[in-house]
Amino acid sequence: MPHTSLAHQVRSDVITALAEDMGTGDLTALLIDEHAQAHATVITREDMVLCGTLWFEECFFTLDPNCKIEWKWQEGDAVAAKQTLCEIRGNARALLSAERPALNFLQTLSAVSTQTRRYVEAVKGTHAKVLDTRKTLPSLRIAQKHAVKVGGGHNQRIGLFDGVLIKENHIAAAGGIRKVMEHAFQITPPNVSIQIEVESLQELDEALNAGAELILLDNFSLTDMRLAVAHAANRAELEASGGITLESIRHVAETGVDRISIGALTKDVKAIDLSMRVSL
């Protein structure tokens, strides 16, 4: 799929979420007078990094274009528990119907940003960048990658269409590291990154000799990472990946690798605990 603008993606995500939740209509909201106006307050029950405000707003604006949302914090702010995130005023039915999809986006994307911020803070003072992967929730890849950036991390390729990552099975099927790298250089469009995964220092040497400039060190020990950094001697960017946790990432960064990719940023999501209270 081609890359789309963030605004278009937000709209698409919200339309899908509202359709999934409301179907042919919100039966419970029919209990409320159609002209009634309401006020809502959203609070967080835990410390968080705020993210997903665009998706949150779109849920309410889609159902009530005239509603008013007043944020107390901005996207990317660190917010302590028990703080009010925003206040909403608008049609009561619309506020009640939009509540769950809006909170789903906000709690999920804030969770990604919050977790990313923890990893970024853990490597502070090193030159290593924290990167995401393609291990995202179905249909929320752009949203989650946005959340990684809000948390201070960096995005890798969006999908299979905008970057080359040559893994173990590609190498085996293509006849080895040198052959697959030669082919990659021949067919890959300009300005598209080519990365190759290696599983040993011997494979690292083969990749360097084949001209690789971006190499993923898959499940290397800390000792082998240090050796890899010394051996590469800045001839290629090195990325560590595989089983890296919040407890271990500092040690990984201190080996001198340039990049650290963390699938857990987007796949192991524990939603932030949020609450919305409505009053007439």
What is the compact description of this entry?
With 280 residues, the protein is an alpha/beta fold. It contains ten helices and twelve strands. Strand 10, helix 9 and strand 11 form a beta-alpha-beta unit.
How much of the sequence lies in strands comes to 15-25%
The major pleated sheet works out as: 6 strands, parallel
The succession of helices and strands, N to C, reads: HEEHEEEHEHEHHEHEHEHEHE
What is the CATH topology of the largest domain?
TIM Barrel
Any guess at the CATH architecture of the largest domain? Alpha-Beta Barrel
- Euclidean distance between termini CA atoms: 44 Å
Overall tally of structural domains: 2
Structural class: alpha/beta
- Can you tell me the overall shape? elongated
Give the low-confidence spans.
none
Q: Would you identify the CATH H-level superfamily of the largest domain?
A: Aldolase class I
Q: Would you report the number of β strands?
A: 12
Rg from alpha-carbon coordinates: 23 Å
Determine the number of helices (DSSP H or I, runs of at least 4 residues).
10
The strand order across the widest sheet is: 6-11-10-9-8-7
- Text of the CATH class of the largest domain: Alpha Beta
Range of helix content = 40-55%
How much is the average pLDDT? 97
